[in-house]
Automatic annotation (TrEMBL):
GO terms for molecular function: endonuclease activity. Gene3D superfamilies: VSR Endonuclease. Residues 216-265 form the DUF559 domain. It comes from Mycolicibacterium rutilum. This is Very-short-patch-repair endonuclease.
Amino acid sequence: MGEKKRQQLPFIGSEALASGALNRYELRRYHRPLMPNVYLDEHIDPSLAQRTVGAWLWSRRQAVIAGLAASALHGSKWIDDDVPVELIWRNARAPEGVITRDDLLLPNEFQCLDGLPVTTPERTAFDIGRRGSLGAAVARLDALAAATGLKASAVEALAREHARARGLRQLERALDLMDAGAESPKETWLRLLVIRNGYPRPRTQIPILGPDGWPMYFLDMGWEHLKLALEYDGGQHWDDAVRVAYDIKRGEYVDDLGWTVIRVTKGHHAYDVLARVQRAWNRLSR
């Protein structure tokens, strides 16, 4: 099959047949059905972006992309490729992997992004902040805020136009806890852990100045008055010798400035982390 016949993006099968771009044999032989009447090259393992385009095409280009799929299009990180694609559209018979919601959507709550109708960052936050657990909602809002510069006040103003929507109480709490300085869901988890256990809200991305007075490093979060920091280390670079050397140099510099840094990895349980924080807090508060 020639390269001109290969489809790298999802497409509507009936349109490809009608235009002569493909015949029925080529459609069935070289492409897989992604959704009813929506196809993709058989060699492609569909990403979230491709499934999102496919879901929109399945809606006959009528739906507005929402939820986590919209958040990903706005540049949010940490969104798995297999999350359902949410569409705001009045159609309850969605195929597998697609969720349709017959929600009120005001004209100023969606925009065109790369040729697709997508909820604005504020409307996207309104939706993802109301659903799921509080911790997950905050992590998703953190990522969206980091990607777009989203402000809680703008989402709160939008929420006032939807006074009867479900989940508004959780949204209010999640927006209050939102912090664009979180660089991973685990950093969000760590921040929420200490807040829930009575500690003052830590500042995120604390700058550590170099000899020239400009920021040289940044600490994940902490309390500057105590010079106590928390850092989450996912361990992804432990086999990278250059990065390990950088981390050692960074750690020594921060230590020399009198900071106490509590490092947390996925192997640490919450009670271990809290015990370490309490010991350091007691010692530094004297």
